[in-house]
DNA sequence: CTGAAAGCGCTTACAG
DNA sequence: CTGAAAGCGCTTACAG
């Protein structure tokens, strides 16, 4: 069905001007006669002419597109990807489109499809990497890519040399702690991976622990066992936690998927939420609002995150490329 | 930070061959001496050379990329997008990457960002359109685009002249009906929009109604009132349904998000699920597995859907471009 | 304000 | 098997 596309020469002929004038008129270059410009626009419209982006990008050495890589768990199917990353993808898409840029997306999970050369091939002007930190091979690949000069910015902090962006995790942990204390909880636990390459989890725990410390409280830290995904980890973690610390009456989970698993595990164990045990998650994913009771959570400002990631990716100034933090706020719903 | 990228001429110089030989060697063209090819590959690797995709695409008149447009509700933020579309996006990405193609994504919601010229500009070889049918303005825009020669394939059937792909909705409706009958339900309702541009809803209802008819049963059809999203519609629909037909003991909802709203509404009304009322949804979204009880649903084979959409988009043969159906199967979980 | 021409970095038909 | 050259469709410095 591919019909022959018209070129700027066709438009030029129809408008009775030179090809260079067509280009200038259509790009909005200054110094083109208004009448000429109108004639060219009309001709272009009549022919259904659209500028060839490859020719244009080749000439301009800029593609006005951002490449977004999402790291997945090997073997995981697409509908099992943590919805937080889909939401982040959506907000990155919004920020990208607000600048008139295109967004190239790539889901990567193993050596078969690891790829970091989007900028090197000219396909994109900058690259953003998000997704699970549990895929060590993937992050190793991107660390090597970075070392060999392929630059990018990423969400979280799966490796030290990266340009990263994170949530205000310490503040989030602190807000969770204060909410528990204010609502009279004293036997408190934190559920989340320790030593995760995802430094964000540590930050949430540390902020939580520090704030609790101010009240003379120390949380039990329950590290989830390995499992298929965060939800399954949450279920398993809470079983172990309740066995060792049956008196627990408040749990802060390092992420919403983990929290949803914890909620499931709590119900399985016959604990009422929030009556017996209060629960707070982190991420603000949609599924949390669908849970019963709805999940209380720390919600990062995703619009800000998308905008900041795109801005950071496009910016060449090293100074702005590290340490940016995205604000979070506590959304009180049913579980705490 | 953009360092000067090496070109094929640089590689040629380093390998001591002509630029044409570099191109042939790197593309894997036949008739290149093995030793020469190795020398060129080594030189390319040493220089960190990557083929410029714009130059290549310009020359080849093919970009090996698919454009995927997702229609959103105006004003909806990205984390509120129906997860079914994110899952579909993921499976399209998988099918795309399996062919070595790139995926360009674009979320569109209003006249500010409507765009259908991805193929016309050479950016993509084909376009796929998915997303909510509730955005009439968007589908009007794409209908016009189609009429003016901008071709694409889409999920569902928001308009008649489109190349579309759908689930086996009638079979899904039939499976739901048979499950209810087999488990002894007789006072049955269907919750879903009638006259929706989303013909798939009608097909599900019709398959359901027809199969029930074989058992001498007729479902009550409850049309959800307008609301912010499908979930809110489900909540509202079930309230009205129970008021008019309190005896209802089984509900088939046209989509999972609707079903999750129905589940919420049922709980709010004090009905036990599945004891008092059984519930079946459609889509197989992840959030359904997280519900309490977990949602029984009709799940389309998304891998097949992604693969078929990409194949259909790339295929020029008109015959294969309409009427393809994706198989669905009943996943029995807690609600029915 | 407009045109003729160079050149972005490839791929491949044409010679050899 | 390899090289010199044309050309994909633009943008823009250079002339006028």
Describe the structure.
The structure is a homodimer of 336-residue chains. Chain A is an alpha/beta fold and 336 residues long. The first copy, chain A, folds into 3 domains: 8-60, lambda repressor-like DNA-binding domains (434 Repressor (Amino-terminal Domain), Orthogonal Bundle), CATH 1.10.260; 65-166 and 302-325, 3-Layer(aba) Sandwich (Rossmann fold); 169-300, Response regulator (Rossmann fold), CATH 3.40.50. Chain A is 42% helix and 17% strand. In chain A, the strands form 2 sheets. Chain A has a 6-stranded parallel beta sheet with strand order 2-1-3-4-5-11, with helices on one face. In chain A, strand 8, helix 10 and strand 9 (278-282) form a beta-alpha-beta unit. In chain A, helix 1 (8-15) packs across helix 2, helix 5 packs across helix 12 and helix 7 runs parallel beside helix 8. The first copy, chain A, binds a DNA duplex (16 and 16 nucleotides) through residues 7-9, 17-21, 23-24, 27, 29, 31-33, 36, 51-61, 122.
Describe the structure concisely.
With 336 residues, chain A is α/β, with parallel strands linked by helices.
Tags for this model:
homodimer, 336 residues, alpha/beta, 434 Repressor (Amino-terminal Domain), Rossmann fold, 3 domains, 6-stranded parallel β-sheet, 12 helices, 17% strand, elongated, DNA-binding
Strand content of the residues of chain A, in percent? Answer: 15-25%
Fourth CATH level, the homologous superfamily of the largest domain in chain A: Response regulator
Rounded mean pLDDT score of chain A:
91
Oligomer: homodimer
CATH class of the largest domain in chain A: Alpha Beta
Largest interface comes to: A-B, 59 and 60 residues
Tally of separate helices of chain A = 12
Helix content of chain A: 40-55%
Are there runs of chain A of 5+ residues with pLDDT below 50, and where? none
Supply the helix-strand structural class of chain A. alpha/beta
Q: In the CATH hierarchy, what is the architecture of the largest domain in chain A at level 2?
A: 3-Layer(aba) Sandwich
Adjacency order of strands in the biggest sheet of chain A: 2-1-3-4-5-11
Shape of chain A: elongated
CATH overall fold name of the largest domain in chain A: Rossmann fold
Radius of gyration of chain A: 25 Å
Task: Note the run of SSEs of chain A as H and E.
Answer: HHHHEHEEHEEHEHEHEHEHEHEE
Number of domains of chain A: 3
**Biggest sheet character of chain A:** 6 strands, parallel
For the secondary structure, the number of strands of chain A is 12
């Amino acid at each position: 069905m591919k019909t022959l596309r018209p070129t700027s020469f066709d438009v030029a002929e129809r408008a009775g001007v030179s090809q260079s004038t067509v280009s200038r008129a259509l790009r909005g270059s200054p110094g083109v006669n208004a009448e000429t410009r109108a004639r060219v626009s009309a001709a272009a419209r009549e022919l259904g002419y659209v500028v060839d982006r490859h020719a244009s990008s080749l000439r301009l050495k800029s593609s006005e597109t951002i490449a977004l890589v999402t790291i997945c768990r090997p073997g995981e199917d697409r509908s099992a990807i943590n919805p937080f990353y889909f939401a982040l993808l959506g907000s990155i898409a919004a920020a990208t489109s607000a600048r008139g840029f295109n967004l190239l997306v790539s889901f990567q999970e193993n050596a078969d499809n690891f790829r970091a050369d989007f900028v090197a091939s000219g396909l994109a002007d900058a690259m953003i990497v998000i997704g699970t930190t549990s895929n060590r091979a993937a992050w190793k690949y991107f660390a090597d890519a970075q070392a060999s000069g392929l630059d990018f910015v990423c969400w979280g902090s799966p490796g030290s040399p990266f340009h990263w962006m994170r949530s205000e995790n310490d503040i989030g942990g602190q807000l969770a702690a204060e909410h528990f204390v204010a609502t009279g909880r004293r036997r408190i636990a934190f559920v989340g991976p320790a030593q995760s390459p995802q430094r964000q989890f540590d930050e949430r725990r540390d902020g939580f622990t520090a704030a609790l410390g101010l009240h003379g409280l120390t949380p039990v830290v329950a590290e989830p066992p390995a499992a298929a995904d965060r939800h399954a980890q949450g279920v398993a973690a809470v079983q172990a936690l309740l066995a060792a610390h049956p008196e627990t009456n408040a749990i802060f989970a390092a992420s919403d998927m983990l929290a949803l698993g914890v909620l499931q595990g709590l119900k399985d164990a016959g604990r009422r939420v929030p009556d017996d045990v209060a629960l707070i998650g982190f991420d603000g994913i949609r599924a949390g609002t669908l849970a019963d009771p709805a999940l209380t959570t720390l919600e990062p400002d995703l619009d800000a995150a998308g905008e900041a990631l795109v801005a950071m990716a496009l910016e060449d100034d090293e100074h702005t490329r590290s340490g940016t933090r995205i604000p979070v706020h506590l959304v009180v719903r049913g579980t705490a």
